[in-house]
UniProtKB/TrEMBL annotation:
Residues 29-171 form the Thioredoxin domain. Transmembrane segments: none annotated. This is Thioredoxin domain-containing protein. It comes from Flavobacterium saliperosum S13. CDD domains: TlpA_like_family. InterPro entries: Redoxin, Thioredoxin-like_sf, Thioredoxin_domain, Thioredoxin_ResA/DsbE_sf. The lineage of its organism: Bacteria, Pseudomonadati, Bacteroidota, Flavobacteriia, Flavobacteriales. Coiled coil: none annotated.
């Protein structure tokens, strides 16, 4: 009986350590070099490194919405994104598309009336950018503070309370 309790306690301790380690990872506070160097496509067809995109909006709070026009969860979440934009109008909304073609990406922006700054990753969800931010699901929302640090690494709903509370603290 005592051995079972000791084993159970050890399992709980290990689980708590894993959860603590995952939620407090250092890479959750800054983008990896691979992400920053990754080239994306702007709406005008030009190529731009992700670090240069972030520089354009330095000094502003940024919500990054990683999405795709083919993603049903992304499309279902768009009304929540629009509500977020209404609630936090001074925030920059940066949409990073995982679409496979520029045509599909641009058509999706128009069709779903996506308002914000738009860029497309050139190698999809499993590419350099996706791997560097541990992208395992879209939509994916991230919040960047005015200093360029990641304030919220992962949310999958635009009305996630962590996302909203993070934005409130960054006002």
């Amino acid at each position: 009986m005592i051995m079972k309790k000791i084993l159970l306690l050890a399992v709980f301790a290990l689980a708590a350590f894993v959860i603590y380690s995952y939620t407090n990872r250092q890479d959750d506070k800054a983008f990896k070099k691979e992400a920053l160097e990754n080239k994306m496509v702007a709406l005008d067809g030009s190529s731009i490194a992700f670090k240069d995109i972030l520089k354009k909006y330095k000094g502003k709070t940024i919500v990054i919405d990683v999405w795709a026009s083919w993603c049903s969860d992304c499309i279902k979440g768009m009304p929540k994104v629009k509500a977020l934009q209404t609630q936090f109008p001074d925030v920059t909304y940066l949409f990073v598309s995982m679409d496979k073609t520029p045509e599909a990406w641009k058509k999706g922006i128009e069709k779903y009336e996506v308002v914000g700054e738009h860029y497309m990753a050139t190698d999809g969800m499993k590419g350099v950018f996706g791997k560097s931010i541990d992208l395992n699901w879209i939509p994916r929302y991230m919040v960047i503070d005015k200093k360029g640090k990641i304030a919220l690494f992962r949310a999958i709903e635009a009305d996630d309370t962590k996302l909203i509370e993070t934005l409130k603290t960054l006002k």
